[in-house]
Design brief:
The chain contains 19 helices and 15 strands. It is an alpha/beta fold. It has a domain at 91-110 and 226-428: Rossmann fold, CATH 3.40.50. Helix 3 packs across helix 10 (224-240), helix 6 packs parallel to helix 7 and helix 16 (365-377) packs across helix 18 (421-428). The chain has helices at 15-21, 40-44, 51-59, 69-79, 112-130, 143-152, 171-178, 194-206, 208-214, 224-240, 258-268, 285-292, 316-323, 328-341, 348-355, 365-377, 385-399, 421-428, 455-465, and strands at 3-5, 30-32, 91-93, 98-102, 134-139, 158-165, 185-190, 216-217, 248-253, 273-280, 294-296, 343-345, 358-362, 409-413, 449-450. It binds pyridoxal-5'-phosphate. Pyridoxal-5'-phosphate binds at residues 110, 112, 143, 221, 253-259, 307-308, 386, 414-415. Pyridoxal-5'-phosphate binds next to helix 11.
């Protein structure tokens, strides 16, 4: 499989090259030149596969010519061996219409583990094959960072620097990052918000000399190989409800648009998907886009679901590329306008096409707390604030008829409630307990670095702290 950039000026290149570079050299994001497609019979034949066998089956076409299905299955088996549920991504019934897909059974109890644990193995394999070393630089609104530091600790070929917005991640998230005590993995506190951290990362990726000097690479969700393992649980959950012989809808708590884009890919690959609900908190740039066709940047307003406190959803560029007929120049233009003015618009016909599969909803903090309380008391399920935004949006889409009666909604539970204890406790009156493997987390010692919110400060820190190369 070959990969090209959403901005039309990089590639085609193979899977491992796309994996190792993360962001394309023209500032765009990599996508496969075409979507692999399974027939209905092929999808039906996936019923009964284990999660890791399914992972090999789904990912094989994207790695064709480089990693075969058997090896992908064994990489997935290794990646998910430490997960604390044998189903890896179990589906639990909330009520007659909504099923909750639990994506918090990995080491950092958020869905980022599903991709990151796989990615670390893919990275290791690719770097070893090329005899190379790399510096991974990423920005996190909380969960990516802990998942990355967990997944990459102890890998000699890679130094990892994760920027996080100081004071804007939950205490559990922060301790998960700062308590990883291994050479070469660094949590870096930056006195700003997530978008500023992400801008620094983007700037340094566009500084080609620095990029080449340290062999810079990305593991945030702009990396195609981060999206790829996420496609698997869209298939596994839909198959378990009877797909491809029924249609399902998904409700996806959304920030950077990575997870929900993986759902879009699942649909392109042939999975019958009625609708993808893009669920946002009060940082509702995506909801507003799906309402109006205008992407308009606003200030980030901190919420109870900090991993979705985002105003620029990087992965949306992949959808834009699709919606604009895979025209890299048109994407380039829109993104340049957005960078300059904080706004771009799409034609009514483009918006209409988006509406064929997407619908946007928002829950503010009060609605999020109300949803946590409601699902705990009525449905006897304690949701974290992000998952609650997804379930609340699913209820709205069912109530207004966007999801026809009888179509099951799979709502993605992206974090364990104990990762966001304060919000959950304020809704239910009870503090959710951490799973056993994390019960001593808050007493582990912390190790972190600090950098000013400028590309130069971060660059200097990386050059000072990285081990070799
Ligand atoms: C990362 C994250 C999100 C947002 O996912 P995107 O892929 O960035 O849209 C939502 N909820 C939780 C708990 C997360 O960690």
């Amino acid at each position: 499989m070959q990969y090209i950039s959403t901005r039309g000026n990089d590639g085609p290149l193979g899977f491992e090259d796309a994996l190792l570079s993360g962001l394309a050299r023209d500032g765009g994001l990599y996508l496969p030149t075409e979507w692999p497609r399974f027939s209905i019979d092929e999808i039906r034949s996936m019923q009964g596969l284990s999660y890791t066998e399914l992972a090999g089956r789904i990912m094989a076409p994207f790695c064709e010519g480089e990693i075969d299905q058997a090896e992908l299955t064994s990489m997935a088996r290794d990646a998910y061996a430490g997960f604390d549920d044998p189903a890896i991504a179990p589906l639990v019934k909330l009520n007659d219409n909504i099923h909750v897909l639990e994506l918090f059974h990995g080491p950092t109890i958020a869905f980022k583990d599903y991709a990151m644990q796989f990615l670390a193995r893919a990275f290791d394999r690719a770097l070893q094959a090329h005899g190379k070393q790399a510096v991974i630089l990423g920005a996190t609104s909380g969960d990516t960072g802990s998942a990355a530091l967990e997944a990459f600790q102890g890998r000699d070929a890679v130094d990892v620097f994760i920027l996080f917005p100081e004071g804007r991640v939950s205490p559990v998230q922060q301790r998960q990052m700062t308590s990883v005590d291994a050479p070469g993995v660094h949590a870096v506190a930056v006195p700003s918000d997530f978008d500023a951290c992400q801008d620094i990362v983007k700037t340094l990726f566009n500084a080609h000399e620095f990029r080449d000097q340290v062999n810079l690479s990305a593991v945030n969700s702009i990396n195609w190989a981060r999206l790829m393992p996420q496609i698997v649980y869209y298939f596994s959950s839909a198959l378990s409800l009877g797909a491809p012989d029924i249609k399902v809808a998904f409700s996806v708590p959304t920030g950077n648009f990575g997870n929900v884009f993986a759902g879009y890919v699942a649909a392109q690959m042939g999975l019958p998907v009625e609708r993808l609900i893009v669920a946002s908190n009060q940082n509702d740039i995506l909801t507003r886009f799906f309402e109006s066709g205008t992407m308009q940047r606003e200030a980030v307003a901190p919420s109870h679901s900090p991993s979705m406190d985002i105003q620029v959803s990087s992965n949306f560029e992949r959808l834009l590329f699709e919606l604009l007929g895979r025209d890299g120049n048109a994407v380039n233009e829109a993104m340049a306008t957005f960078a300059k003015t904080g706004r771009f618009d799409v034609d009514a016909s483009v918006l209409e096409e988006a509406h064929n599969i997407f619908a946007g909803y928002r829950l503010d903090d009060a609605a999020t707390i109300a949803e946590i309380r409601h699902s705990a008391t009525i449905d006897h399920m304690v949701l974290d604030p992000h998952s609650a935004v997804g379930v609340g949006a699913a209820r709205m889409a069912l109530a207004d008829g966007t999801i026809p009666a009888g179509v099951p909604v799979i709502s993605l539970a992206c974090a364990h409630p104990a990762k966001f204890q304060d919000a959950v406790a304020s809704a239910t009156g009870e503090t959710p307990a951490l799973p056993t493997h994390l019960s001593d987390l808050m007493s582990r010692s912390e190790k972190q670095l600090f950098a000013d919110a400028t590309p130069d400060a971060v660059k200097a820190l990386v050059l000072q702290e990285k081990r070799s190369i």
